[in-house]
Amino acid sequence: MKLTLEEIQQLYKFTKAHFVEHYDLQTELVDHLGNGIEEQWNANPDMPFHTALQYEFKKFGVFGFHDVIRDKTKAMEKRYWKILFQFIKDYFKLPKIFMLLILTATVFTLITLLPEGYKGYFIAVTFLFLMVIVFVKSLQNKKGLKKKNRKWLLEDMIMNHTNSLAFLNLGLQICINPFILESLAEYPIGSLLVSFFLVVLMLLFYIMVYIIPPMTEDLLIKTYPEYKMG
After folding, report:
1. Contacting residues for 185 by C-beta, under 8 A, at least 6 apart
2. Which of 30, 43, 166, 217 is geometrically suited to a Cys-Cys bond with 11, CB 3.0 to 4.6 A?
3. pTM for the whole thing?
4. What's the rounded Cα separation, in Å, for the pair 74 and 80?
5. Apex CA 161: angle with CA 12 and CA 69, to 5°?
């Protein structure tokens, strides 16, 4: 026996009712549940659909789909960072690397020209400026996102990752205490390291909020073949 279209739709509703929001993960679970139900029907054709469904659902354990959601999120997280660092690697190749070197030299010059006691404030203001730009652009990206009936895990990561608490916390700590990097910037090699760090951070934020979001649809098509049909 095979599942009917109506029963497949019931499986989608079932996964959504059990806190599976993303369509790609719903589809994976529906396929898994559907195969299990059909195997049960092969052994017992008279078993009701909902009985077979509850039997298959119990196989996921006490926490239901929680472990599946967690594992899928981790896997997609790795994919997101792989995409991000692929873009970053391009900036460490010719000719883009010249831009990084020029920016690093510019920031280094500004830091070394500043009098003692002001270097930390310059670094803090730079961080604050970056955070404001990232926050504003992130809101614009979310606002410009077309309303869709289906949510995709990778899409949510692309749109939400710029609000990473790790980045925001780092920026806030430096803004609150501008002398965190002051002592390091007192020495030429320290100033160079701080300058390079700031430039790489700028590059990271630039790629996260300006480069990847406009490419979201292409990335989704590559990740989910069924996305075109959605």
Report:
1. 111, 119, 120, 123, 191, 194
2. 30
3. 0.76
4. 10
5. 30
